[in-house]
Amino acid sequence: MLRLLPIVLEAGQLAHRYFQAWHEPQTAGAASSLSVEWKDAEEPVTEADRAVSELCIARLAAAFPAEVVLSEERPDDGARLSAPHFWLVDPIDGTKDFIAGRAGYSVMIGQVTAGEPSLGVVYQPAAERLWLAERGRGAFEIVEDRPLARITVSAIQQIADARMVSSASTREELVEKVRTSAGIRDELQVGSVGVKLCLIASAARDIYMNPAGRCKLWDTAAPEVILQEAGGKLTDLRGSKLRYTDLDLGHHRGLVASNGLLHRDALRVLEPFLVGR
Question: Which of 44, 72, 60 is nearest to 7 (CA)?
């Protein structure tokens, strides 16, 4: 874990320098801009994504030379499928927030061991907030210059009292319907999936639903172990565990995250809306 922290911090600082040069030229000292390309209609990528990815890959290779590393910005060569454990890198999770000048992006590195997320770090540089966990050792956060603090999920048990976190860039009709059906009134919009799950882990939020089926392994590996170690739960829309050892990189059955106490009710409220999906 300690060998991973400098890598994530360096990567986050690099991402934030790009962010400041683009959106805060008075802070960075010079105006700049990044060209935006699109992998598909929903997935933008910038020079910053690629630069942070290459830094993470290089640092992980130096620190863990015998281990497999897969980044969002590199093709999957399948080596992870036969590895006892492997690293997953999301260089900028929440690229749409990054492009829009919003603070809700993060750098994430997670490790998968025997098919389960085993170690994760999520760093939100614009908020100077970092979350980390290792399987069986608890979940922790560092906010600005405060000391390392252990985190646990909230104790909220009634779904109508839940504080939802949802996407800042894409408004899902199903999420709106479920929120209304459940009577949830409190909603916060954030870009990064990792930040969303970590806000639940640190009891700032209670529930998250993503029906789109576009998330990938690197979106969830790091924050899933953090959420679980904090007492929360992450599944697909039907309540099944996420899989990390399939050839396919996608979580096509969507995501539901909660403080654990709300999970059964969240799935129950979702169920009528999933008919035919």
Answer: 60
Distance of CA 178 to the CA centre of its chain: 22
d(Cα 93, Cα 123) in Å, to the nearest integer? 10
Structure tokens at 124: 């939100």
- What SS3 class is residue 55? helix
Nearest of 53, 57, 75, 73 to residue 65 by alpha carbon: 57
Dihedral of the alpha carbons of 74, 77, 81, 85, in degrees to the nearest 10: -50
Q: How far apart are the first and last CA of the chain?
A: 40
Domains with residue ranges and CATH for the chain: 5-150 (3.30.540.10), 159-274 (3.40.190.80)
**Span 112-131, pLDDT tens digits:** 999 999 999 999 999 999 99
Quote the crossing angle between the two packed helices 263-270 and 173-182, to the nearest 10°. 120
What per-residue confidence (pLDDT) applies to 267? 96
Task: Give the residue among 274, 204, 212, 215 at the shortest CA–CA distance from 239.
Answer: 274
Q: How far apart are CA 127 and CA 110, in angstroms?
A: 20
- Which residues share a beta bridge with 43? 40
pTM above threshold 0.90: yes
> For residues 85 and 89, what is the distance between their CA atoms, to the nearest angstrom?
14
